[in-house]
Amino acid sequence: MSELLKVVEVTDSTNDDVAELGRRGAPHGAAVAAHRQRRGRGRRGHTWVSPAGGLYLSVLLRPQVSPTYWSVLPLVAGTFVLQELGCLSAQNLALKWPNDLVIVPEGADPQKLAGILVERKQDTHGQDYAVVGIGINLTHPDHEIIRPELVHDGQAHPLSTGYLEDCLAHSADVSDLEVFDQLAERVRSAIVAGCDRWVHALTVDAGVDPLEPLKNIYEEHLYLIHRKVRVYIPDNKVAETGQFLGVDGWGKARIQRGDGTYLALLPEQGSLRSST
After folding, report:
1. What is d(CA 276, CA 272) in angstroms, rounded to the nearest whole number?
2. Euclidean distance between CA atoms 202 and 210, whole angstroms
3. What's the pTM value of the predicted model, to 2 decimals?
4. Are 79 and 114 in contact (CB under 8 A)?
5. How far apart are CA 194 and CA 212, in angstroms?
């Protein structure tokens, strides 16, 4: 296991832990993983319930590109984590715009496997850095589901919970402590290597929109693309309906309305659900 990764049994928030490491000048790739969190959080400050049975991991990134480009880091991280879990034989995985990994069993509704939260911070020298947090549901908890019925992470019609142990083609005990540590390191490495590849691609092709180098790969795994969707705004009201065409170079969802006009939706503006 890399010296850059620290694994703990429980903490308040791995994102807070790594933010503090970054504030003190910790290097690109430093990370904290926990078996449980007391105060996990998701997008827009929503609660992320974090009992035993999950992997809660936060990674410090210092991408050498303009911080204005960092808005697509959740999409970048999700793409490379999905690919890494696929290498572990996880099946039926997809990306749900903008920042979730889902399991989509054939003929069944999608299940939420993981969520990603990226926070921008600044260290004591005034240097910007990013904290990429991810929570992955590994195994069915004995006494508490990952997201209790009363906690919907702020989403309309919340997805049911999916677990990594249920989508692995080859049987593996992901609750084993050694396996947990190995998985944490593989996910950390996937996020860091993915970020580095993304930065390199932007350096080679300077001037393109930030998601452009990975846009085709991201859309290849994108749940609901080319299907009719409802757009829910933060108060959980339906604001729009239309066909989900994919994303633009800044990660905005592109929706074609029934009258032929288009909507470009920022992640903080709403969420998408199937209209069928």
Report:
1. 12
2. 7
3. 0.91
4. no
5. 14
